[in-house]
Amino acid sequence: MAPAPRSQLVALRERALGEIAPDRNLEFKGIVPNLFEQARRDPRLERDIIRLQKERNAIILCHNYQMPEIYEIADFIGDSFGLSRMAQQADAEVIVFCGVHFMAESAAILNPDKRVLLPVLYAGCGMADMISAEGLCELKSEHPDAAVVCYVNSSADVKAESDICCTSSNVVQVVRSLREKKVIMVPDKNLAAYAQRMVPEKTLIAWEGWCPIHHGLATGELDSIKQQYPGAEIIAHPECQADMLGKADMVTSTSGMLTHARSSPAKEFIIVTECGMSNMLRREMPGKKFIPVCQICPDMKKIDLFSVKRSLEQMQFEITVPRRVAERARLALERMMAIAP
Fold first, then answer.
1. In this predicted model, what pLDDT tens digit does every residue of 280-335 receive, in sequence order?
2. Are 48 and 309 in contact (CB under 8 A)?
3. CATH 3.40.50.10800 is the classification of domain 128-211+323-339
4. In the CATH scheme, what is the homologous superfamily, with its name and number, of domain 6-125+299-314?
5. What is the rounded CA–CA span in Å between residue 174 and residue 10?
6. Residue 256, CB half-sphere, CA atoms under 13 Å: how many?
7. Residue 236, φ and ψ in degrees, nearest 5
8. Cβ pair 187, 127 in contact under 8 A
């Protein structure tokens, strides 16, 4: 099946933003996060998925922000960087990516000999939609002496116009590695601002994009929660705005949150990111308390057990990237992995 044009995918995603896991039959607006804390297990569907997975020689990758029931059928759970690495190392013919579109694209780019499936085609990313390859090329023409760092939360076309990719876990390492003093960073202005503070010897030129989920988190809510849990450590994602990060004890990626919470002697943590991460942390460390300051990403909640089963049954939706674009985007991804293995 030929891939749908990106404009069509964006339109599909926009029409579907109110849908979060059809079996829950809920609208996004006004959802209370704890409705998504418990896995909606379905033993029959899980058995079917395991059977199909064996028949297809498939591996199931799951982002930390996915529904809790997806954790239970996943082979690997992680952040964008960890899953990119796992996709590259996967010993399987088929990769089922339980995440969003740009993640499945990256897996397809890194694994041209494997089939990559995204169970819900219109699971997209609002921030990735804020930049185009054409827009990046215009910015590059204004700053011809600047290196281009592309956050992995972007399309293959944008990656292809970039020198190197980064994730929230390795952005500081990537920016420091560049010989150029000027660095264009796309598409997240908040991540760029964080990198600028951490690497002041560079001059970062930020694209005017942001994650709608992290950008919307308010310090007032954090202050209120902190009053209730004065001894809790605050761990925030670098996609948040600077005033939020300034209140955090630790700024790190979702994988970094997991690592820090495991090693910290603290028993209570305020987690400032998408709501799903607190679910993951509770699953991994039931003896510690995780209090979310969060919003729900509707795109990260679109995949459910039925869509995973259907994807394996019908081998849909296969994500492909044009060869010329994939070759250039692969260079940017592989440069990142060489610097931050």
1. 999 999 999 999 999 999 999 999 999 999 999 999 999 999 999 999 999 999 99
2. yes
3. yes
4. NadA-like (3.40.50.10800)
5. 29
6. 18
7. -125, 150
8. yes
